[in-house]
Write a structure and sequence with these properties.
Helix content is 76%, strand content 0%. It is mostly helical and 98 residues long. It has a single domain, classed as Trp Operon Repressor, Chain A, CATH 1.10.1270.10. Helix 3 packs across helix 5. It starts with 8 loop residues before the first helix and ends with a helix. The model has no long low-confidence stretch (mean pLDDT 96). One of its GO terms (molecular function) is sequence-specific DNA binding. It comes from Oceanobacillus profundus.
């Protein structure tokens, strides 16, 4: 995993903080303080791109709907194909709740 290079106490603390959030409103409050609007938009955009790719949408449809660049779409595709299965784990859990 790429993130293993960052593994340590500081990153563990961030993940523990995220896991401590109890609802969407708390997420809004925490992420408003910890990240820029651009960072939050980029992360949410990547998740939407991953969802659309798993639904079989074309690059042009994804680009039109999300405004993501083809480079971002390609990067997310690589993660879906060769990554740590984080996107699929989260997308599967979201689908189960629906």
């Amino acid at each position: 995993m790429q993130i293993d290079k960052l593994r340590g106490k500081q990153l563990d603390q961030l993940f523990e903080a995220i896991l401590s959030l109890e609802n969407i409103e708390e997420c809004y409050r925490f992420f408003d303080d910890i990240a820029t609007m651009s960072e939050i938009q980029s992360i949410s955009q990547r998740l939407q791109v991953a969802k659309m790719l798993t639904e079989g949408k074309t690059y042009s449809a994804i680009e039109n709907e999300t405004k993501a660049s083809t480079a971002t779409i390609s990067r997310v595709r690589r993660c879906l194909n060769y990554g740590s299965d984080g996107y699929m784990m989260v997308l599967d859990r979201i689908k189960e709740k629906e």
